[in-house]
């Protein structure tokens, strides 16, 4: 228990620059208190004292604002930052070094007793504030869930899920000249607070911006064509060309402009 406590405090100090001392973390961090009390509640649950486990978890909920069912499984160095409003269901499994922010729900969508109803977070997963992860699927190692995302299906390892319903983002990893593999591959990724990943854009947003840019480009080309046709019509009219109807030419230019 003391070993786990030391690890938890060290993990919090590593991930939260506001933590100034071990004593401050031990006395003022509700996420740490919730995890400590959950270990007691989970021990009671596994020993067959179901009511006692639920009672301890309810006391922890009253004290911290974080509700963790005693049947849930938490790994080592789990950090629940701020934590108010976090709900973790009975069959949820949270791996080592995961980080969960305030307002997160790890919920279940099935009513079948004894089934795996809640998600599994593999090691190093970050779940941003207000995110809802609903169902008995797996969020892969090192994945990130953006704030307020609603995740209803599995997330691959290392990916980022954003939006409602969540879409999967795979950020491009920059390469250095001469590298056969992306630069930084094989290294442990840096911690991303709230699941914010630099240089990772929403693919839907990118597609919309691409359509807007394409429409703007097409509009510019049409304006150039219309201007050229108008100039050609005026030039032919000045020459008195009889075989080309300049009025029709201008009409065609106007139709192109209105498209």
Outline the structure in words.
The chain is α/β, with parallel strands linked by helices and 259 residues long. The chain has two domains: 2-200, UDP N-Acetylglucosamine Acyltransferase, domain 1 (3 Solenoid); 207-258. It is 40% helix and 13% strand. The chain is built from six helices and 15 strands. It has helices spanning 2-15, 22-28, 30-46, 50-64, 203-239, 246-258, and strands at 67-68, 73-74, 79-80, 87-88, 93-94, 99-100, 105-107, 120-121, 126-127, 132-134, 138-139, 144-145, 150-151, 160-162, 167-169. It has a six-stranded mixed β-sheet with strand order 3-6-9-12-14-15. A five-stranded parallel β-sheet has the order 1-4-7-10-13. Helix 3 runs antiparallel to helix 4 (50-64) and helix 5 runs antiparallel to helix 6. The longest helix has 37 residues, at 203-239. It is elongated, with a radius of gyration of 29 Å.
């Amino acid at each position: 228990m003391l070993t786990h406590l030391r690890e938890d405090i060290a993990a919090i100090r590593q991930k939260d620059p506001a933590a100034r001392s071990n004593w401050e973390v031990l006395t003022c961090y509700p996420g740490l208190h919730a995890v400590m009390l959950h270990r007691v509640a989970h021990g009671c649950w596994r020993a067959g004292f179901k009511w006692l486990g639920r009672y301890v978890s309810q006391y922890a909920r009253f004290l911290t604002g974080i509700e963790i069912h005693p049947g849930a499984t938490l790994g080592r160095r789990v950090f629940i930052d701020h934590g108010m409003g976090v709900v973790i269901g009975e069959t949820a499994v949270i791996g080592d070094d995961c980080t969960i922010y305030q307002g997160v729900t790890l919920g279940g969508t099935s009513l079948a007793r004894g089934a795996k109803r809640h998600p599994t977070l593999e090691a190093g997963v970050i779940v941003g504030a207000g995110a809802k992860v609903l169902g008995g699927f797996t969020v892969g190692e090192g994945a990130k869930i953006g704030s307020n995302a609603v995740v209803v299906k599995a997330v691959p390892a290392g990916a980022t899920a954003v939006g409602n319903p969540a879409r999967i983002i795979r950020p491009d990893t920059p390469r250095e000249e001469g590298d056969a593999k992306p630069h930084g591959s094989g290294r442990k990724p840096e911690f991303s607070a709230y699941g914010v990943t630099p240089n990772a854009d929403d693919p839907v947003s990118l597609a919309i911006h691409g359509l807007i840019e394409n429409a703007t480009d097409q509009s510019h080309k049409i304006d150039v064509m219309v201007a050229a046709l108008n100039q050609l019509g005026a030039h032919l009219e000045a020459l008195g060309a009889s075989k080309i109807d300049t009025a029709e030419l201008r009409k065609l230019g106007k139709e192109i402009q209105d498209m």
